[in-house]
Amino acid sequence: MKREYVGKRIPRVEGVEKVTGRAVYGVDVELPGMLYGAVLRSPLAHARILSIDPTEAARCRGVKAVVTGKDFPFLFGGMLRDQPFLAIDRVRYVGEPVAAVAATTEAEAREAAAKIKVQYEELRPVFDPREALADGAPLLHEKLGEYAVLGPYKNIPGTNVCVLRTFSRGDVEAGFSQADRVFEDELYIHDVAHTPLETHAAVAQYLPAEQKYNLWSSTDRPFRLVKELADALGIGINQVRFITAYTGGGFGGKGSLVAEAVAVPLARFTRGRPVKVVFSREEELTASQTRHAAFLKMKTGVKRDGTLLACRAEILWDKGAYSSKGPDVGHRGALTIFGPYRIPHLELLSRMAYTNKQPAGAYRGFGTTQVTWGCEVHMDRIARGIGMDPLEFRLKNGYVEGDAYINGQIMRAVGLKQTLEGAAREIGWKTPRPEPRGNRFRGRGLASMIKGTATPTESSCFIKVNPDGTLTLLVSSVEIGAGQKTVLAQIAAETIGVSLDSISIPNPDTDVTPYDSGTSSSRTTYHMGNAIRTAGREIRQKILEIAGEILKIDSSLLSLSRGRVFPPGGGEGVSLKEIFSRKFGGRGGGLVAEGRYSPAGSPLLAAGGKEAMSSIFWMFATHAAEVEVDTETGGVKVMKIVAAHDVGTAVNPLGCEQQIEGAAVMGLSNTLLEEFKMEGGRILNDTLADYKLATAKDLPEIVPLIVETLHPEGPFGAKGIGEPAAACTAPAIANAIYDAVGVWIKDLPITPEKVLSALKRKNGEGRA
Fold first, then answer.
1. How many CB atoms lie within 10 A of CB 269?
2. Is the full-model pTM beyond 0.85?
3. Do 601 and 721 form a contact (C-beta atoms < 8 A)?
4. Which residue, among 210, 277, 216, has the nearest Cα to 241 in the 3D structure?
5. Which of 93, 280, 591, 634 has the highest CB neighbour number within 10 Å of its CB?
6. How far apart are the first and last CA of the chain?
């Protein structure tokens, strides 16, 4: 059947609104009587708060409220409730909010905050998660065992281990004993900043008469934050309302209470006046959230013919001071460290340790980026070590349609092989490497990945047909800059049979739009798309029934396309506006349908009751990189990146390509440029002049390849794309460096100094 919208390269439906400056982002929200908030932050990494004197600050011009942790002594956290809104009795990282001020201008608030006097008793800090595990290490959370745990997460009270996850299948030791070779590696992936163009911003208002909090922010998970805030304060969900603005970049960082955690306590004491808090770039880099750093150990047994037999993996995550979304990263994200490969014997130990650093949270890939780094460098080392082509090694062991995931779930729509073959073909894998140019050597590398989506989660929608035949799609999926509104409008228009420009999608408001688990985990197209398909089919049927009544034709003989109803035999058709005008006349009227989707049933079945590890769909990707390494300077120049992604059906190929290209840039930036410089817990490079990001001048040729494997339950066969797109770039670059000059770089970022050091070791010892 010919499709009007799905599969078409359609520009963003909100694009004009954005480029003309009419779009309202979190930083743009302005309300009558609004005050402005500022924060006094801790100068110490670990200290006990002895006293706080706000007297001088309270006397400053324009100040309406000064709030400390003792004024608002609540803890929040969506998975482990361990974080105060403002420090209560101690601080655990440089930059932690200690007190906050609301004033009539931002300048007045900042000036007053600087005059709050705090006395500290400095405590011994710990900055390395390996040291945090040692006997005698300072405990960051003595009350860990008393915190509320919201999910299947385990921790070890009396230690700094806030997340513990184990998994095993088969007999790893037996697998090692059967192997012809056993390979071991230790790797490290660093913490990096989310660095959205729009910093964290929130407006909070407390309505005393209703005892209700209204919030405006650019979060990507409004309903989850409603629950998190209500649970923290011990109030009803109907006493918290989130109104979302457009999001100027998030990458996982805006799914937690950050600026909101400062705005809410201030609003509680400003007698109904809203309070706006906008982070500076310095605060964004030092006091928001980061990607989790991780130390990874891999041990794998393999036969001479390349068959993988057993793998033991150990991950130690650097949690920072508070848990944020970390428990699920360490619990579920860790599982994909075994990669997209059939390995009969498996064993995993995943631990997350508190340190005196800014909290780490959700970051694009939700742990998959980190574990893919470890797995894919390790897999290349194995392939090279047994003398096997890395591409053939992956093709031999990689998942195919109908294979079982590590919990026994049968996977469907598995396009790994197609991504491998497509990326290899485009990078010229089988062709000779270019000849060296003096000290410059070329090499090529591959890396693959697997990622699931959070399962089960729920999405709901309402579709309204207005009296003039236009439609309003009410969803709580957030437009975070990835084209969510466009894709959802395409699915709705295709399902119902209306024109794309007749559909409007307002931004989410938790008092108005129905429940959605969040714009995260690459779930929106699949989950909300399925909800829209359900509601759309109902709306379409209702429209045809009304049209049949008006036109006096059996509705089963009518068709609906681009907003016009056609009788048998075709013709010009009748517009929805005319149909509704004749139906309702001047009194007005319309239609409403509800759609809901949450995966369940046989597609999630697993062995031994391990359905909690299942995913309703699986995403696969392969990146190939060609690099040029200068053996004199250690410099690495990426010449080309090919990124092949299995997306199911590409609802909007243009949007898919944009996601893939943007993520490849992000991966390159993470790999070669981004790095926090820290001293005594203080981040030294706290501006974008010093925290280096990739710019247009750093970019190679990027070739996005879309692989379509139709998912049997996806909307028009679609799966997801947003998160996995950044995961493969780093290991592909590292593997290409080895191909070029024969040295392995196992800790990120890859810098000229590390490359030179590895080359010196190679030349001095004969091997890297």
1. 17
2. yes
3. no
4. 216
5. 93
6. 57
9: tokens are 């390269």
Measured between alpha carbons, how far is 500 from 515 in angstroms, rounded to an integer?
A: 24
Amino acid occupying residue 546 = I
Cα–Cα distance between 373 and 369 in angstroms, integer?
6
Average pLDDT across the chain, whole number? 96
Of 195, 90, 77, nearest to 140 (Cα)?
A: 90
The whole-angstrom separation of Cα 311 and Cα 298 is 7
d(CA 324, CA 326): 5
433, 444 Cβ separation under 8 angstroms: yes
What does the block give as tokens for 340? 């997209």
Residue listed under structure tokens 């359905």: 611
DSSP 72: S
Are 240 and 226 within 8 A, CB to CB? Answer: yes
Residues 6+ apart with CB under 8 A from 336: 367, 368, 371, 372, 375, 449, 450, 451, 452
The residue type at 279 = F
- Asked if residues 605 and 473 have their Cβ atoms less than 8 Å apart, the reply is no
Work out the number of other CB atoms within 10 angstroms of the CB of residue 506.
13
Closest residue by Cα to residue 100 from 74, 53, 64, 68: 68
pLDDT, one tens digit per residue, over 233-280 is 999 999 999 999 999 999 999 999 999 999 999 999 999 999 999 999
